[in-house]
Specification:
heterodimer, A: 340 residues, alpha/beta, Rossmann fold, eight-stranded mixed beta sheet, four-stranded antiparallel beta sheet, 11 helices, 31% helix, B: 321 residues, 12 strands
């Protein structure tokens, strides 16, 4: 048994929008005007082992970015908890985060937005470690130079401003900034999605090198199935705020168990297979404000039965360190089978 | 047989304070009826400017400095602004990346579609709405009559992009230009739209130019591919040729850097450096500083070499494997 460094236990996150004055007044007459609740995450449990890279995959609205933010401690979970080495990642006070771990660091999608355009890159990198006394003051300059070199840039670039870098170089700076805090866990939220193909390969190679050299533990959030397969050990598939399947990467890609996972793989265009008809998933992604009853995927699922409309599937063991939340794996989709 | 769209020697320049920048440099290709051409490149390669140039949508400081754009044999560049406006939307339609930018947020879908119909054809509004409904049904929108009454914000991203495609189809144009039309969509929705686009090309006979950075999308959708780099088409051929047997070192490099073609966890072959700035292009072949096959010869303009219909702009093309 390996030791999980990061534990996500039964985490739910709801965002509530209170109605405005006008809506409340109209609501008095029409019976509406109630708070709108978005169920971004529902009862998600995951463990991440030390040195593991866990991929989080899903389409928009599946909650993958919200999960990343809860893990980083930016959002307080509505229910459940996230612990790093047994300690909560964030201390909450009256619904707000008031103390946050520095041990989980995030790398965002857009390096044009995530770097302060008026701050020299060296200052950006030094700000966090200096404030938190992670690097002794006398060593900051030397350490920043070493970090820049570690991510494949030149130490002298510390005096440059973000606009003097290309997109790929900026993403390297963003990675260096996260590493400067000497984190236990990195959260990469679509970190290569905005990069050109040729640059994406460079950044993925850098990530794999750093992982090998530093033994990084990471949550790799992405919608790109081929990138995830390349860098992740295990993959979690999410749909509408819930975890639907979790498996070692090679097994998941060889033999997806959840109908959503299979459908997702079937809709992804792949290179070199020639022209083909896409076996597209029918229908739209439902709204997380009003998720479907039972299994959230049932309106789009080709294999759904009566039970799927009423009964929420739980994550159950599917052998070989795999879990899947589907009635097909848990007694069948017919109502009679449940009773039996 | 004349191609539905033929582009010959298209060159688009932008006059900037730092001197003239050639965003599209001597680009030529043709698309026949019912075929889909993939125009592939990374950011700054000139693929979008090519699309805008075909549509006659280049504003100052940009200008088309040379070349011809023939739609059904007629040169669009010879048209006045007024004549071009009559052509746009009727003979050539365009679909953009972000449907929220294409659709007017304060008009109902039906109203803006009817307006687009009546710009080019004299008919009553109810007849125009009927045309709009048919177009929505063509792109697979369920309960089209209700959708006509919806505002764009009431539709999902995938629905909005379908409406944008339906609008481009209203006048059964000969040519449709789609610029990163599925890039902003989720994969399951992208899959649905790609399937419909393929069917549209077969059914309506429209020639489609599919502009994208995503090689996997073009590889499964299009008939022919043009690869652009620094404003030029560096390789052109059928999808099977370009994906299966790339001959330009840049195309090869792009394909090699796709993770799904390699064993998980192994280092990816990468193209060194980054895309050049158009204002500071190297002499000769623009790919020279990043190219593993470059020699001194590459400082001179690369020749166009064609073998079995596959054209590359290169001094040292790869052998056909």
């Amino acid at each position: 048994m390996t030791d999980p460094i990061l534990k996500i236990e039964n985490v739910s996150k709801r965002f509530t929008r209170m109605p405005g004055l006008a809506e409340r007044l109209v609501g008095k007459i029409t019976g509406g005007g109630k708070p709108v609740v978005v169920h971004a995450l529902t009862d998600v449990s995951l463990n991440v082992d030390r040195g593991e890279v866990l991929g989080i995959v899903g389409e928009s609205g599946c909650g993958k970015s919200t999960l990343g933010r809860v893990v980083t401690g930016i959002y307080a979970p509505s229910d459940g908890r996230v612990t790093l080495n047994g300690k909560p990642v964030a201390r909450e006070h009256g619904g707000n985060i008031d103390k946050l771990t520095t041990q989980v660091q995030m790398i965002h999608q857009d390096p044009f937005a995530s770097l302060n355009p008026r701050m020299k890159v060296g200052e950006t990198l030094a700000e966090g470690p200096r404030y938190h006394n992670i690097i002794p003051a006398g060593e900051v300059r030397a350490r920043i130079r070493a970090l820049l070199e570690k991510v494949g840039l030149e130490g002298a670039y510390a005096d440059r401003l973000p606009h003097q870098f290309s997109g790929g170089q900026r993403q390297r700076v963003a990675i260096a900034r996260a590493l400067a805090m000497e984190p236990e866990v990195l959260v990469l939220d679509e970190a290569v999605a905005s990069l050109d193909v040729s640059i994406q390969a460079q950044v993925l190679n850098l990530f794999m090198d750093l992982r090998r050299d530093l033994g990084l533990t990471a949550l790799f959030i992405s919608h790109d199935l081929s990138v995830v397969r390349h860098v992740c050990d295990r993959v979690a598939i999410m749909y509408l705020g819930r975890l639907v399947e979790l498996a070692p990467a090679d097994q998941l890609y060889a033999d997806p168990k959840h109908p959503y996972t299979s459908a997702l793989f079937a809709s992804v265009p792949t290179i070199g297979t020639g022209k083909r008809v896409f076996e597209a998933i029918k229908g739209e992604i439902p709204s997380p404000i009003n998720p479907p009853s039972g299994c959230a995927f049932h309106p789009r699922c080709p294999l759904a039965g009566p039970r799927c409309k009423v009964d929420v599937p739980r994550l159950t063991d599917a052998g070989a360190a795999r879990t899947v939340a589907c009635h097909l794996n848990d007694g069948g989709v017919g109502l009679r089978e449940v009773a039996a | 047989m004349t191609a539905a769209l033929e582009v010959r020697g298209l060159t688009t320049r932008f006059d900037t304070r730092g001197g003239a920048v050639t965003a599209v440099n001597d680009v030529s290709f043709s698309v026949e009826k019912g075929r889909i051409l993939g125009l592939v490149g990374e950011s700054g390669s000139g693929k979008s400017v090519t699309g805008f140039s075909i549509m006659g949508l280049i504003d100052a400081p940009g200008r088309i400095s040379a070349g011809e754009v023939l739609v059904d044999g007629a040169d669009l560049r010879a048209l006045s602004d007024e004549e071009m406006r009559k052509m746009r939307g009727r003979k050539v339609g365009m679909v953009f990346q972000d449907p929220m930018m294409t659709l007017n947020p304060v008009l109902r879908v039906g109203d803006q579609m009817a307006m687009a119909v009546r710009v080019h054809r004299k008919m009553s509004k109810s007849a125009a709405l009927d045309e709009a409904r048919k177009a929505l049904e063509t792109v697979g929108i369920p309960s089209a009559v209700e959708r006509l009454k919806a505002y764009p914000h009431q539709l999902s991203g995938g629905m909005r992009q379908r409406v944008a495609i339906a609008m481009a189809l209203l006048h059964s144009p000969s040519v449709i230009i789609a610029d990163e039309a599925t890039t902003a969509l989720d994969v399951s929705i992208q899959g649905q739209i790609l399937a419909e686009v393929r069917e549209l090309a077969d059914k309506t006979g429209a020639a489609i130019v599919w502009i994208t950075h995503d090689l996997a999308v073009v590889s499964s959708l299009v008939d022919d591919i043009c690869v652009m780099y620094a404003g030029r088409i560096v390789e052109r051929g059928t999808a099977e040729q370009v994906i299966g047997h790339p001959r330009h070192p840049y195309t090869k490099g792009l394909l090699d850097s796709i993770p799904s073609l390699h064993a998980p966890g192994t280092p990816l072959p990468q193209i060194p450096g980054s895309t050049p700035q158009l204002s500071r292009l190297p002499q000769g072949c623009p790919f020279r500083p990043r190219c593993p096959r470059a020699t001194e010869l590459c400082a001179t303009p690369p020749p166009e070499v064609t073998v079995e219909g596959q054209t590359v702009l290169c001094h040292h093309p790869l052998e056909r494997s």
